[in-house]
TrEMBL record:
PANTHER family per record: MEMBRANE BOUND PREDICTED REDOX MODULATOR, THYLAKOID MEMBRANE PROTEIN TERC, CHLOROPLASTIC
UniProt family annotation: Belongs to the TerC family.
Organism of derivation: Rhodococcus gordoniae
Keywords: Membrane, Transmembrane, Transmembrane helix
Region of interest (Disordered), ranges: 337-362
Membrane topology: Multi-pass membrane protein
Protein's UniProt keywords contain Membrane: yes
Location of this chain's protein in the cell: Membrane
Originating gene: alx_2
Protein name, as recorded: Transporter
Transmembrane feature ranges: 6-25, 37-57, 77-94, 101-119, 125-144, 180-200, 212-238, 250-269, 275-300
Biased composition (Polar residues): 352-362
A GO CC annotation given for this chain: membrane
Length: 362
């Protein structure tokens, strides 16, 4: 499949424009409700499917199937990010209205890192085809390990990344609205929101190590690999706000994701010198595995409604209005007017509201 330069430029331009629109629409920190998240999720899924239709019509059915297989694999594996984000936000007790800014920058960083990984993977495969055997073995082992540890979850307190961040980066003990840095007493300090962003970025890089080799099992066209990745993860922020209160119901999803990794690992190993499994069959298998895991999860947890993740004892508090006003600007100038007002309430997943104060101190 030959992809002209203008196609790459058009896709990248479209992504930049959509990210700008998303950022403008969420320029003010607010709690994103289920309805808003559902609308944005539908928008991003619509773009992902629409782009696949364009590939199908202009490049042929086989490349169209490869794109959709890659998109489905990446979208399914990316759901695991939602689980991890929920754990990180719960651990730090990040106010819900501040979460979108972190996820926006997290997804932006994910696009950059995944683009680099895809470029490196394409070069390696083109110059050293036998590396596909390593990718295949890695995917199978990762799937088996995920299956064995399906009940294990990330523990931020044991995260080496968080320990290093705390050791080397001076940080405040309070959230200062959406700021990642503040100047206090002439010293620039990071806020806990920056630690959250770093954890989100690092965990996505870890997930990319699994997902990038997985998509190379169904297509080796860099353009399809990148676009399937991009459209799959661009809607992750909206998916998080849509599914965050339903995570407790997806009890078998991790089993499904593990089986998908094992399947694509075997497919990759076989296609090198033994037998090429048609993309149609691969797409059907992945769809069946993910669909069955979701259906089984929803069936065994039927009757359970939305449930916000349990809130842990807050490690960090929220800066008071006086502290927000006292914080000096980073670049030597201050916008006139009253300091940003901290919301008095947070919206829970069921639509109710709960009053919050300054937060809890250690």
């Amino acid at each position: 499949m030959t992809v002209p330069f203008w196609a790459w430029a058009a896709v990248l331009g479209f992504i930049v424009v959509m990210l700008a629109i998303d950022l403008f629409a969420h320029r003010r920190a607010h709690v994103i409700g289920v309805r808003e998240a559902a609308v944005w999720s539908a928008v991003w899924v619509g773009f992902g499917i629409g782009f696949g239709v364009l590939i199908w019509l202009n490049a042929g059915a086989e490349f169209g199937r490869q794109y959709f297989a890659g998109y489905l694999i990446e979208k399914s594996l990316a759901v695991d990010n939602v689980f991890v984000w929920a754990i990180i936000f719960t651990y730090f007790a990040v106010p819900r209205r501040l979460q979108h800014r972190v996820l926006f920058l997290g997804v932006l960083g994910a696009l950059v890192f995944r683009g680099l990984f895809i470029a490196a993977g394409s070069v390696l495969i083109a110059s050293f085809g036998a590396i596909l055997y390593l990718f295949a073995a890695f995917l199978i082992l990762t799937g088996c390990r995920m299956l064995r540890g399906r009940d294990e979850h990330l523990d931020p307190e044991r995260s080496r990344t968080l320990r290093l961040f705390r050791r080397y980066v001076p940080m405040t003990d309070a959230f200062y609205e959406q700021k990642f840095f503040v100047r206090i007493g002439g010293t620039v300090l990071a806020t806990p929101l920056l630690a959250v962003l770093v954890l989100v970025e690092v965990t996505d890089i870890v997930f990319a190590v699994d997902s990038i080799p997985a998509i190379f099992a169904v297509t080796d066209v860099p353009f399809l690999v990148f676009t399937a990745n991009a459209f799959a993860i661009l809607g992750l922020r909206a998916m998080y706000f849509l599914l965050a209160d339903l995570i407790h119901r997806f009890v078998y999803l991790k089993v499904g994701l593990a089986l998908v990794l094992v399947w694509v690992g075997f497919k990759m190993a076989l296609k090198i010198d033994v037998f090429y499994i048609p993309t149609t069959i691969s797409l059907a298998v992945v769809t069946t595995i993910i669909g069955a895991s979701i259906a089984a999860s929803l069936y065994v947890t039927r009757g359970r409604g939305r449930q916000a993740p349990p809130v842990a004892a807050a490690l960090f508090r929220r800066a008071t209005p006086a502290e927000l006003a006292a914080a000096a600007p980073l670049w030597g100038w201050r916008r006139t007017g009253a300091p940003a007002r901290s919301d008095d309430s947070e919206c829970l997943g069921d639509g109710s509201r709960t009053t919050t104060g300054e937060g809890l101190r250690d």
